[in-house]
Amino acid sequence: MDKPKANLFSSIKSLKYLFKKPVTIEIPKVYREAADRYRGFHTNDWDKCIGCGTCSEICPTNAIRMEKVPGYEAGNGQTDERPVIDYGRCCWCGFCVDICTTGSLKMSKDYIFISPDANDFIYIPDEEGINKNYPEEGYRRNDETDLLELERVIMGHLSAEERGDSFIEYVRGYSKEEAIREASRCVECGICTYTCPAHMNIPEYIRTIWEDDLEKGVEYLYKTNPLPGVCGRVCTHKCESVCSLGHRGEPIAIRWLKRYIVDNTPDDEYEKVVLAEVSKPGKGKVAIIGAGPAGLSAAYYLRTLGYEVDVFEQMPLAGGVMRYGIPRYRLPDEALDRDISFIEKIGVRIHTNYKVDKEKFKELKEKYDAVFLSTGFFTGRKLPPHILPGSDHTDVIAAMDFLPKVRDFVRGMGEMPEVGEKVVIIGGGNVGFDVGRSVVRLQRMKYGKVDVTITALESEDILPADREELEEGREEGLKVVFSRGPKEIVIEDGKIKGLLTVKCLRVFDDEGKFNPQFDEEDKLFLEADQIFMAVGQAPDYNYIPDDIMEKLEIVRGKIKADEYGRTNFEWLFVGGDIKEGPDIIHGIANGHNAAKAIDEYLRKKYGIE
Amino acid sequence: MGEIKALQLFHGPNHPGMHGNFSVHIKVDGDIVVEAEANPGMLHRGFEKLMERRNWMQNIALILRVCVVEPDINEAAYSMAVETIEGMDVPERAQWIRVMILEMARIANHLMSLGGIGGPTGLYTGPNWALVDRDLILDIFEKITGARVYHMYIVPGGVRQDVTDEILKDLEKVLDDIEKRLPEYRELILEHPIIQKRTKNIAVLTRDQALSWGVTGIALRATGVDYDVRKYDPYLVYDKVEFDVPTVDFSDAYNRLWLKYQEIYQSIRIIRQVIEKMPSGKVREKLPGNALKWRVKKGDAYVKLESARGEFGYYMVSDGGTKPYRVFVRGASYPQGLLGIEKGLPGTRLEDVAIWLDTMGVCAPEIDR
Amino acid sequence: MKEQELIDLIEKHVKYEEGSIEVYAPRKLKFILKKDDLVDTLLFLKRNGFVQLSFITCVDWIKDNKFELVYGLVSWEHKLTVLVKTFIDRDNPKMISIMDIWPTAKYYEQEINEFFGVYFEGNPNMSKELILENWDSMPPLRKDFDPQSYSNEKFEIRIYDYKMEDKKKK
Prior knowledge:
heterotrimer; A: 609 residues; Alpha-Beta Plaits; FAD/NAD(P)-binding domain; 22 strands; B: Cytochrome-c3 Hydrogenase, chain B; 8 strands; globular
């Protein structure tokens, strides 16, 4: 390039612009439209926003704060806070939009806002926008800008072939790398904690995995749950259903992460945490009837408060539904034994093969300061013959009469239960699938082939069983028929021929109550020589003396009690299925709450501060 | 004849020839500077400390403020330092896009300082023109990144989002427009007799001075040393594009302007090659987990790039945590802005001080950080 | 010159008691050595093509009670960048100034003095203000300096005058 030479005339040429149209525009007379990706003022969709606060966490300038909105009722899976943006601090980076867990927070193309009052620049984004003009969306998040990791780390399973004919646990559990990676997806919003019946410190213990400090993790687990090994496997994980990550991606595998902590902390470190000093010496003795989740949970927390605790269990092994209900492939005995062993190690006495009856109940009442009932729903329910003809046949078996036998068989304590060649199961809940998948395994062992059908009242989208139960069951060879109500069990020559079903049009009425309606014309016959019923379980209150029973209120099979399990008797507390209905984590929460109430009662009784 | 007194003056921060909040304390004897001392610190916001308190992603919104006119160079240096420590692979397309963004920023910067010479010389048409043409580049930045000045676009692992063909077409048009305008800048500024008079043989930098002060960039290249990081230590895909590094043998204010002018052509040439050769594909790799939980391996690295003012680098240390342990910003203007002013300004005439500062490329926030 | 040739050259000619050399990226090397060997090594490198000093900086390793000084050198001839690093005690930290080798070191050293409190012997600008004005606390880039509490102490926290009710009219 030639070097420029001085030339006065060449610069004079620029005078030609004197008579040209200016390139600048006159604002506000002319509005300049921003580019499509423009990062302008925020908008926030209040219907979608759950107040998780992740936007305020990522904000590099602390411009976003979460504030409680007066008069705003937060539903399940939400907090009552919403983001407030200080435009005096905002730097328009858009990271809040990139990381928004629900996709409610957006940026618009709107970029002009003028006000003489500095306080006007504090803004609670809503759909209207700061200028109340419902601005057009500008910058958008996409896969590349997304700052969340939406996909779950895949959990290793045994294949359907490997697991289909044995009862070994088929979920492998996370390795260290996998667990840390899964834990690093968590945004620590804490919405799960509100939803968890036991209010476990979920974000905190997930963080300990990420920091690789499992001992601390165990400490967090035992704050609210003395059966983490069980819950890490079979909890109904209500937490995962509200996980903020679940709005745009897959929720954090909270249950598997809990299991990771339990399975990967060495026993000696575990003991150090669990056996830590009893917080305060209490005075008093407590009897607990039923060594299921609620009973064991209450026992653990009462013992840590310093009370003498005796647990009475009618079965040969402690654990209740965890021991006899849930199949072994989901919850092996070893995991349960480990949890229970730590409860015993802190000094809880568990008396098995001890059936409490009316007489013994009275003795216990005399000998102990307080009694906690957690006897569960342990009796199988069957539809009576006037509702389902043929249901009194001996080959029609209730789930709770069958599952304990399977478990006893698997642990070598009993014969193999009878299974037919063609089996139909009534009930699309988790118990139905437990029965179905157990039968699949037994059929493989006995006949080498599988023929099991589950009939559910519900359609596939509202099936009460967990999604993975359905998927994994199908892999193993289960057939599932949806929207079918049982009509009649057809019996010929004293033998079951099969089940006649009719189409179920809807399960719940407009008020959301259980009120199924059927199309009697749409029939389907399912051949079977054995039929299982998984239509719910029932309690058995025969051990409670009549004079006490009279004064207890029974509502739909459950004993009425307050949040802390307090009944009409100040010394009697209840928890678990008989208070809440069947669910392990609720039972654990009940046990913990009842322990607090019993502690309060006993301290008052003995005048201890 | 009266007695001659030495006067102490504050040159800046309020001065039409001063770029940024920076001032120089000078002592003059008549019109001649006898002593000069830089007085930085007015823009000190403690970036290096702030970076230690923000996580890897959040820093992207912070670091670009180290240089207003050419913010992208910070994003790139920061991201490359993270990638070097972590051993991350950056998708091919992202590397091409980064080159494009950096060269666009270089054009915007050079236009501004080419026009900016109007400040200290009184030719105010220059800055007005330059800002208009720079705005064309900013329009493209707005389309690609969603912001005009602080783009926050280059991030560890790539760039934030892809560039569409439509935007590339717009960019090509803007490049054509700017190329068409460049001869007019030559006529208006470089051939202007007053500019020639006011910049030739003024603010001279010798090669020995440049070496001993550690000056890089255009000021050094004007002394005949062809040191350009893009050629000497090619980063991104600079080894896959063709371009020349213009040099001259005499570093005065005029020649430095002249080099900037020539570099704009080279940058246009590079961007055109990028548009032509850029492969398709992914533009971003991410660290595992969400951005709040990103961790970078333990280690340290120094990464350098060629900014419009010279070698620009980040020395970064990670202790394996979610935040940098230490980040040091090697601003390109550091040597000339401190030692250069102390050693080079004495002997200059008072009216040339602004020209000296302007053409040497002293950018205050790079010194203050 | 290739990276390995430089390593060989250094190992052959520079006497140092302990240290390590590592290539951490193409054309970029790291070199850790003892404080006493530092100046000789820098001189040697300058004589062998590393004419440019890019920067000097410091890292506070508070847990080890050390400061790490990092010197970044560039050779245009060999197209290589070398980081020469050394550790010094955090208590009463002292180092010899290299102003005489590279005059530009003057301000880098002054900056480290201001922000970390390392004293460079032979540099006339020690304890002179560079960036900070009227600073009255410990050198701010030290890890034990907490900018948040400093700022809480020195500046008023702004209180906004608004109510959520007024902001949210729904």
